[in-house]
Design brief:
Helices cover 27% and strands 15% of the residues. With 127 residues, the protein is an alpha/beta fold. The chain has a five-stranded parallel β-sheet with strand order 1-5-4-2-3.
């Protein structure tokens, strides 16, 4: 399990090693092409609305250590996985994206603007 022992606040970095940062428009195309969207937000936020077909992986995140169980990313390390949270201050998404890359997933995408960017763009969502 990857770990981030200290809680972080403020803006997330613009890039992460081994992870491609994408826009909401890019994310929409990735989902349409079969990419798997993984939502790290708390369950209540997920239930209110999420990207089409997104799976909540919040339960795979240890709240104390911020470690992410890599089994949440699926068995296929070549699959396109799109990780997102609330927005540019979403450190859980950073932790999850880093954990996926460190676990050997080769096509990790990060919607840095998260749900906020997706919603503002008026893109479709599910409840």
């Amino acid at each position: 399990m990857a770990s981030n022992a200290f809680a972080q606040t403020g803006e997330t970095p613009p890039t992460l090693p081994g992870v491609a940062t994408v826009t909401a428009a890019d994310a929409k195309v990735l989902i349409e092409k079969g990419g798997v969207a993984l939502d790290v937000r708390k369950k209540a936020a997920y239930v209110e609305g999420h990207l089409p077909g997104a799976k909540s992986i919040r339960s795979a995140i240890n709240e104390q250590t911020k470690a992410v169980d890599p089994s949440a990313f699926g068995a296929n390390k070549d699959a396109v996985i799109l990780i997102y949270g609330h927005g540019t201050d979403g450190w859980s998404a950073v932790d999850a994206a880093k954990a996926a890359a460190e676990a050997g997933y080769k096509n990790v995408k990060w919607l840095r603007g998260g749900w906020s960017e997706w919603s503002k763009a008026g893109l479709p969502s599910e409840q």
